[in-house]
């Protein structure tokens, strides 16, 4: 199999699981936040929203930096960096003992993200011209 096809398949799986890892916590987040000691309904809603959205906010801020670094150092290296960073942040979220730790770990997850944009750039740069785009 050609190398660009192997990269496309592996990057597709990586993007799929990255999307799951970042967003599929939403249904369980209020329960987890309440387990961390937040009891009032208003505070529970606020902390659930903040801990979910901080990942995307931080990711939007740092994405241009990761893109620039990927152009200079290589996209595969940035994919590995993002995968490892997000995996560590997700693992550590299981050990959070208060809502602030969860919030900071979700922010760190956003800080180390950038997998999906770099994956798209990697695939776009490797796919032969006649195979790219819609047909």
Automatic annotation (TrEMBL):
Q: May I have one GO cellular component term?
A: plasma membrane
Record flagged with keyword Transport: yes
Bilayer disposition of the protein = Multi-pass membrane protein
Looking at the record, the residues that make up the Major facilitator superfamily (MFS) profile domain are 7-135
Does the keyword Cell membrane feature in the UniProt annotation? yes
- SUPFAM superfamilies linked: MFS general substrate transporter (SSF103473)
List locations, semicolon-separated: Cell membrane
- UniProt KW keywords: Cell membrane, Membrane, Transmembrane, Transmembrane helix, Transport
Q: Which domain of life is it from?
A: Bacteria
Q: Which GO terms describe its molecular function?
A: transmembrane transporter activity
Q: Which residues cross the membrane?
A: 47-66, 78-96, 102-125
Q: Which InterPro entries match?
A: MFS (IPR011701), MFS_dom (IPR020846), MFS_trans_sf (IPR036259)
PANTHER family cross-referenced by the UniProt entry: MULTIDRUG RESISTANCE PROTEIN MDTG (PTHR43414)
The protein, known as? Multidrug-efflux transporter
Task: Recall the taxonomic lineage recorded for the source organism.
Answer: Bacteria, Pseudomonadati, Pseudomonadota, Gammaproteobacteria, Enterobacterales
């Amino acid at each position: 199999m050609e190398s660009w096809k192997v990269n496309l398949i592996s990057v597709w799986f990586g993007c799929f699981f990255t999307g799951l890892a970042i967003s599929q916590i939403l249904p369980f987040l209020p329960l987890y936040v309440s387990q961390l000691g937040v009891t009032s309904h208003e505070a529970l809603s606020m902390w659930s929203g903040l801990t979910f959205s901080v990942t995307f906010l931080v990711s939007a801020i740092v994405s241009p930096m990761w893109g620039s670094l990927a152009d200079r150092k290589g996209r595969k290296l940035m994919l590995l960096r993002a995968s490892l960073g997000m995996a560590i942040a997700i693992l550590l979220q299981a050990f959070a003992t208060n809502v602030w730790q969860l919030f900071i770990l979700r922010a760190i997850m956003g800080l180390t993200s950038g997998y999906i944009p770099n994956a798209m750039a990697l695939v776009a740069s490797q796919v032969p011209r006649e195979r790219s785009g819609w047909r």
